[in-house]
Hints:
By secondary structure, the chain is of the alpha+beta class. It has helices at 2-11, 18-37, 76-84, 110-113, 176-181; strands at 40-52, 58-60, 67-75, 91-94, 103-105, 120-125, 129-131, 134-146, 157-159, 164-166, 169-175, 185-188, 199-204, 213-215, 218-223, 225-240, 247-248, 254-262, 275-279, 287-290, 293-295, 302-306, 309-312. It has 4 domains: 2-37, no CATH class; 40-132, Beta Complex (RNA Polymerase Alpha Subunit, Chain A, domain 2); 136-223, YbbR-like domain (RNA Polymerase Alpha Subunit, Chain A, domain 2, Beta Complex), CATH 2.170.120; 228-312, RNA Polymerase Alpha Subunit, Chain A, domain 2. Helix content is 16%, strand content 43%. The strands form 6 sheets. Strands 9, 16, 18, 19, 21 and 22 form a 6-stranded mixed sheet that branches. Strands 2, 8, 11, 12 and 14 form a 5-stranded mixed sheet that branches.
Amino acid sequence: MGFVNSIFNLFRFNKKNWKAILLCVFAATVFWFFNALNKNYSANIGFPIVFDYDHGKYIPVKDLPEKIRLNVSGNGWDLFRRSSGLKVPPLVIPLERPAEVKKIVGSSLPPLFSTQLEGLQINYVLTDTIYLDINHKSKRIIKLAVDSADKFIQRNYGIAGPITIIPDSVLVEGPESAINALPATLSLVLPDERIKTDFDDLIEVDTGTEFITRTPPVVRVAFRVENMEEVTHTCPLKLIHVPDRLRVAAEASQVSVTFLTPASLVKLMRADSMYAVIDLQSVPPGHHKIAPRIAGLPKYSRVVRVDTVSVSY
């Protein structure tokens, strides 16, 4: 009975024996762990993969798969190392014609991987199919422009000079399909901050995809901004490509136009240089109300309102 009590007291927690108990538990755990790892097991493991191809001539259109899941058998140590990802070299998939390969069936990969998985046996591939999208590398030079700059300007202000872009073009390089899909001119987007003073800043060239590189990635954009004054003027109307039997309202010899123009140009404006134009070449027979085009406006002006003209034939 005394012997049993001594054993019981050994595992009873107190301040004197807690270190010994923890040491025993730790030793037993380590012994069990090492013993278990010496046995053979089967496991589902995700392995890193890389694709071997000429990166100087080809480029992915989207991110390539980075892992493949396999069911493998092997020693516990090897399985533990592989599943933990500690210094595990990726499995290499060679691609001789990467632009032609759109998918790889998982069941075709064991012969390729068997020589790369030392100490492990592939039972089957869990990943059904690997999808790829790789293009030939392509490059071209594209012009740059600021599209609809007025929408970034504070109300009652406007652009009062030419828009300078330095450089005015960019070299883009990337997947052939993405490069060919780009427009002839790339539009630069200004910061949406309601500009009301002269603008001079660096603007990023955005192609809409991370797989296209731009040289340079940013360009300098500069232009003058002024307060805009509203001007109303009556100008003569000119009709061109006039068809037979045309009837025009009697009051249509002149039209009223209201436009915004930079304040510094108001005094320099020549009213007699402005006129309204209606081109009837593509207007079908019938009755129409047409807003004329205003020619001879001061530079950097924009029309706010213009009278329409009634025509019929």
